[in-house]
């Protein structure tokens, strides 16, 4: 049913559908366009559109997952893009080589060229480096980058990630997440840059520029850059800690938390992904007032809006293989990972019957064409023919690893430092304990080689565990190190560094009801046991968010929030230890991107244990 543009509109007027509160687009910001009007581009789009059949148009609106399609399928069905979901890979092998990714990209490109009027795009979740590819540089997750408060660093991370994505023949990433996390019990808190909309906006714009290149300059969407996606529109971080939950904020609060979309549009972001979450009971995938009225018409976003993983199926009257309501609401590309073939067939029938108005179909296709032409897709040629394709030396390069290590250093937040225990002299007897000490899997967290971050550490390389970094710093100075996850030791250590925290998770699997996480009692007991023996204790917490650590905090002389630092754990030792000559190598720079709740049951708290922006310095002592 065609929607009249009213919130809670007829698009999903099915029994039981609820109407969201009214939205007032004129009260929303209107960012300056990142790109000047381009009549030549628009003329090319119209000329292409005029030559496209309904089947070719509908194909551009459908995205399938590589685990559910073959090159032969792409020769039959003119899909406009594919994705590899966080568990999808060539031959379903998470350890497929970079060359296999590139060769598959070539096969898909060639097959699609036989059926579709424009070249195929391949999207991936490169959210903390090209994290689905073995050998890629794995950066800290966003919450640590929010703590770093360093836009220049983020730009460089975006640029490095773009090069690594290009090396494997892909051209689009579903990053950055620009959620403003309002309750850290949410399983996707670590994908947020923090609770402050302005901080998130600054980080979002920087990463978009790094990934895509600066809008209006020759580097914009050139061969070294990739398409970015601001996600998940809108209000995904404000659902009371429940992933895909219901955001009941006011329109004004929703508008406040949309600052990063204003910034991302201002930086020229070419894609926005709709959120699984709802606003006052109405699924974002079906909210035309916000997707079209606000994002497209008011904010002037002229790229494409993509749905999330079968998110359209959650709309009343829809399924994974049919959803005119989502397209009517403003979804331009529907992510139909497994059901893409039937979704294509049903949507083609709905276009032919008028259930999807021709004007809306054309508007969606125009947006896809605009993005593809801005990305020079017709001129670029097959993936392996592009300038950085096959340059696998870019993956995990020493320069990119050094950048990741710098990001680790800048992300660390010092919460406690009794008696100025830190920085430590490296010529000492050091015990490294805790289940996170020599655990690259835990350091990296979710979306690392697989969705939930379950791969063994030996699969994630290049990498350096926090323990390995400590061992290198201490032995270089003539000190000695003992690794003992359980905390048992032979000779009494001068200091114990205990690395502990959350096991990896992603999305809803990480939702908590209490911040007293699994393993908290074990970790607290270990710290208390060492502390009771009069050993100086440094606690290093590995987590995707603040957790309830009152006991751990009391048992430690120094306490560091390390977030999910990624593969370059050596960055932790860079800050904890002095240089062999006693000089200080790096001071702490990180400041809390989220307030630290005081109680285990509170995902946010008016009187936090540590406030937003808190972070000690060596220089402050
Ligand atoms: C997931 C996530 C989204 C991701 C997409 C593709 O469900 O919600 O952030 O980009 O699917 O993997």
Summary tags:
alpha/beta, 33% helix, 11% strand, 621 residues, binds alpha-D-glucopyranose, five-stranded parallel beta sheet, Rossmann fold, disordered N terminus, six-stranded mixed beta sheet, TIM Barrel, 2 domains
Overall pLDDT metric: 95
Tally of contiguous helical segments:
20
| Multimerization state | single chain
Q: Strand count, sense and closure of the main sheet?
A: 6 strands, mixed
Architecture overview:
- The protein is an alpha/beta fold.
- The protein has 2 domains: 25-394, TIM Barrel (Alpha-Beta Barrel), CATH 3.20.20; 412-576, Glycoside hydrolase family 3 C-terminal domain (Rossmann fold, 3-Layer(aba) Sandwich), CATH 3.40.50.
- The protein is built from 20 helices and 17 strands.
- The protein has helices spanning 39-51, 54-60, 71-76, 98-113, 142-148, 151-167, 197-212, 251-256, 259-266, 288-298, 324-329, 340-353, 358-374, 377-380, 398-411, 440-444, 466-476, 520-532, 550-555, 570-576, and strands spanning 62-65, 81-84, 121-124, 172-173, 229-233, 246-247, 271-274, 278-279, 282-283, 304-306, 334-335, 413-417, 429-433, 480-483, 495-501, 536-542, 558-563.
- A hairpin with a 2-residue loop joins strand 8 and strand 9 (282-283).
- It starts with 38 loop residues before the first helix and ends in a 45-residue tail after the last helix.
- The model is unreliable at 1-15 (pLDDT under 50).
- Residues 83, 85-86, 125, 174, 231, 308-309 line the site of alpha-D-glucopyranose.
- Alpha-D-glucopyranose (GLC) is lined by residues 83, 85-86, 125, 174, 231, 308-309.
């Amino acid at each position: 049913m065609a929607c009249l543009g009213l919130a809670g509109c007829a698009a999903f007027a099915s029994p039981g559908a609820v109407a969201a509160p009214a939205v007032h687009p004129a009260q929303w910001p209107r960012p300056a366009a990142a790109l000047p009007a381009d009549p030549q581009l628009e003329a090319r789009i119209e000329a292409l559109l005029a030559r496209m059949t309904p089947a070719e148009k509908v194909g551009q609106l459908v995205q399938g997952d590589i685990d559910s399609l073959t090159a032969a399928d792409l020769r039959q069905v003119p899909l406009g893009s594919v994705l590899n979901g966080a568990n999808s890979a060539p031959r379903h092998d998470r350890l497929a080589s970079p060359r296999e990714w590139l060769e598959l990209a070539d096969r898909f490109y060639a097959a699609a060229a036989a059926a579709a009027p424009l070249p195929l795009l391949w999207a991936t979740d490169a959210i903390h480096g090209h994290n689905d590819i073995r050998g890629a540089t794995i950066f800290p997750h966003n919450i640590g980058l929010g703590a770093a408060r360093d836009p220049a660093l983020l730009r460089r991370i975006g640029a490095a990630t773009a090069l690594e994505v290009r090396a494997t023949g892909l051209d689009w990433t579903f990053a950055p997440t620009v959620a403003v996390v309002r309750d850290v019990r949410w399983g996707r808190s670590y994908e947020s840059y923090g609770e402050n909309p302005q901080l998130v906006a600054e980080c979002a714009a920087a990463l978009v520029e790094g990934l895509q290149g600066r809008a209006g300059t020759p580097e914009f969407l050139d061969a070294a850059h990739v398409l970015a996606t601001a996600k998940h529109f809108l209000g995904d971080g404000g659902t009371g800690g429940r992933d895909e939950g219901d955001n009941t904020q006011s329109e004004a609060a929703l508008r406040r938390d949309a600052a990063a979309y204003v910034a991302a549009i201002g930086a020229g972001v070419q894609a926005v992904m709709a959120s699984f979450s709802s606003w006052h009971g109405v699924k974002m995938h079906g909210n035309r007032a916000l997707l079209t009225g606000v994002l497209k018409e008011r904010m002037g976003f002229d790229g494409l809006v993509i749905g999330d993983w079968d998110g359209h199926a959650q709309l009343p009257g829809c399924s994974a293989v049919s959803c005119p309501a989502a397209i009517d609401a403003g979804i331009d590309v529907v992510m139909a990972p497994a059901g893409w073939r039937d979704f294509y067939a049903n949507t083609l029938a709905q276009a032919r019957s008028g259930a999807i108005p021709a004007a809306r179909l054309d508007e969606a296709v125009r947006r896809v064409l605009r993005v593809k032409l801005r990305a020079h897709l017709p001129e670029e040629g097959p993936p392996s023919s592009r300038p950085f394709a096959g340059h696998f030396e870019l993956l995990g390069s020493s320069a990119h690893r050094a950048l990741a290590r710098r990001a680790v250093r800048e992300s660390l937040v010092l919460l406690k430092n009794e008696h100025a225990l830190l920085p430590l002299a490296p010529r000492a007897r050091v015990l490294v304990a805790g289940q996170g000490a020599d655990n690259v899997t835990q350091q990296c967290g979710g979306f690392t080689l697989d969705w939930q971050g379950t791969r063994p550490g030996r699969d994630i390389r290049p990498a350096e565990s926090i323990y390995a970094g400590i061992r290198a710093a201490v032995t270089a100075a003539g000190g000695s190190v003992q690794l003992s996850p359980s905390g048992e030791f032979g000779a009494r250590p001068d200091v114990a560094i205990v690395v502990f925290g959350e096991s990896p998770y992603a999305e809803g699997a990480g939702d908590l009801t209490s911040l007293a996480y699994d393993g908290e009692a074990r970790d607290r007991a270990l710290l208390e046991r060492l502390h009771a023996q009069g050993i100086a204790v440094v606690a290093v917490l590995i987590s995707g968010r603040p957790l309830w650590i009152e006991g751990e905090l009391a048992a430690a002389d120094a306490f560091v929030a390390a977030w999910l630092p990624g593969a370059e754990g050596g960055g932790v030792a860079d800050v904890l230890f002095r240089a062999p000559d006693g000089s200080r190598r790096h001071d702490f720079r990180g400041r809390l991107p989220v307030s630290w709740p005081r109680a285990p049951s509170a995902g946010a708290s008016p009187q936090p244990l540590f406030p937003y922006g808190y972070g000690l310095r060596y220089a402050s002592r």
